[in-house]
Amino acid sequence: MEFTPALYSTKVHNGRRTFFIDVRATREDKPYLKITESSISKEGEKKRNYMTIFQDELPDFRQAIEQAVGFVNKQK
Fold first, then answer.
1. Residues 6+ apart with CB under 8 A from 65
2. Torsions phi, psi for 56 (to 5 deg)
3. Is 52 a domain residue?
4. How many Cα atoms within 13 Å fall on the side-chain side of residue 32?
5. In angstroms, rounded to a whole number, what is the distance separating the alpha carbons of residues 15 and 60?
6. pLDDT band per the 50, 70, 90 thresholds, residue 2
7. How far is it, in rounded angstroms, from Cα 35 to Cα 19?
8. Does any domain span residue 1?
9. Is position 64 within any domain?
10. What pLDDT was estimated at residue 35?
11. What predicted TM-score, i.e. pTM, was given to this entire model?
């Protein structure tokens, strides 16, 4: 597997979980998001989960996230 460096990277740390949000480029130089959740279980086991969102999927993904956040905020 070939490693491609991130064009942009940020992280959110919260207790036993850390989220890494990276912008990377495909072989065709098209940007995409790679979201990684890194966590440690109560037993000390390290786990990583990945999600990839390609450029053409971003508008729908963003809209869904905004709707979900809006719903959560109304529940307060």
1. none
2. -70, -15
3. yes
4. 16
5. 30
6. low
7. 7
8. no
9. yes
10. 97
11. 0.82
CATH number of residue 53's parent domain: 3.10.450.700
Q: Count H helices and E strands in the chain, helices first.
A: 1, 4
Report yes or no on 51 lying in a domain: yes
How many domains does the chain contain in total? 1
For the cut 70, the answer to whether the pLDDT of residue 1 exceeds it is no
For residue 25, the enclosing domain spans 8-74
Query: What residues pair up with 54 in beta bridges, in sequence order?
Result: 32
Q: What is the pLDDT of residues 8-55, one digit of tens each?
A: 999 999 888 999 999 999 989 999 999 999 998 888 899 999 999 999
pLDDT > 70? residue 3: no
What three-state secondary structure class fits 14?
A: strand
